[in-house]
């Protein structure tokens, strides 16, 4: 009997349409022209590894392919690029060789993780304790830094690029904060302007945040 991986006709992303980490991978798939199936992880409180595509960290997203399973958004995006016949010019995190770019990627990723912790604490019935207060302060600090530096970030990115992991991450972070009502983003005018410009891409329109039925 063939295994699940042997039966795969195309890649399968384990994730949620409401997840910013999942959306990063879906935007990349759309940009790269890679068809995939989305397998919705419906219960984020599940302790069953198989619900997460085999990820022992019990996190999304994961990518199942005929070559194996890839854990995490960055790993998935790299594999989607390898599977794509388009091979666009992508700026990856290791290409960010000046402080403002490297720090922007770090803070955008950290802000996404912090937001997840705040959302999960709320879902799990966690109170507004000292740890939650510190996380929220950290999130506000990171957003203030990104707002102040987004202009310099965009100016420092290589002009000859089709896509950058940093821009996709930043877009998904900012728009997800509003979607999950974690933090109003109206005060962040520079980040809002960036998001409005980035949202003109067809890949963004095809991957809008929504709660899976």
Descriptive account of the structure:
There is one protein chain. This protein has two domains: 4-87, Glutaredoxin; 90-201, Glutathione S-transferase Yfyf (Class Pi), Chain A, domain 2 (Up-down Bundle). The chain is 51% helix and 9% strand. The protein has eight helices and six strands. The chain is globular. It starts with a helix and ends in an 8-residue tail after the last helix.
Give a brief description:
This protein has 213 residues and is α/β, with parallel strands linked by helices.
Unreliable segments (pLDDT under 50, ≥5 consecutive)? 1-7
Q: Mean pLDDT score, rounded?
A: 94
The CATH architecture of the largest domain comes to Up-down Bundle
- Total count of helical runs of at least 4 residues: 8
Please bin the fraction of helical residues: 40-55%
Strand content: 5-15%
CATH topology name of the largest domain: Glutathione S-transferase Yfyf (Class Pi), Chain A, domain 2
Query: Globular, elongated, flat, extended or rod-shaped: what is the shape?
Result: globular
Order of helices and strands: HEHEEEHEHHEHHH
Report how far the terminal alpha carbons are from each other. 32 Å
Number of self-contained structural domains = 2
The side-by-side strand order for the widest beta sheet comes to 2-1-3-4
């Amino acid at each position: 009997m063939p295994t699940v991986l042997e039966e795969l006709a195309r890649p399968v992303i384990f994730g949620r349409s409401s997840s910013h980490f999942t959306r990063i991978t879906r935007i990349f798939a759309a940009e790269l022209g890679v068809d995939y199936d989305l397998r919705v992880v419906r219960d984020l409180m599940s302790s069953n590894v198989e619900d997460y595509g085999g990820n022992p960290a019990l996190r999304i997203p994961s990518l199942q392919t005929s070559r194996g399973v890839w854990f995490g958004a960055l790993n998935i995006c790299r594999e989607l690029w390898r599977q794509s016949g388009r091979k666009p010019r992508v700026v990856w995190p290791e290409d960010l060789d000046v402080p403002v770019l490297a720090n922007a990627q770090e803070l955008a990723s950290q802000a996404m993780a912090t937001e997840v912790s705040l959302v999960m604490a709320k879902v799990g019935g966690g109170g507004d304790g000292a740890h939650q207060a510190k996380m929220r302060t950290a999130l506000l600090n990171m957003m203030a830094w990104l707002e102040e530096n987004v202009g310099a970030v965009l100016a420092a990115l290589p002009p000859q690029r089709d896509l950058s992991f940093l821009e996709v991450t930043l877009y998904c972070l900012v728009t997800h904060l509003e979607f999950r009502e974690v933090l109003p983003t109206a005060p962040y005018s520079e980040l809002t302007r960036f998001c409005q410009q980035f949202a003109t891409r067809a890949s963004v329109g095809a991957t809008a945040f929504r709660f899976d039925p």
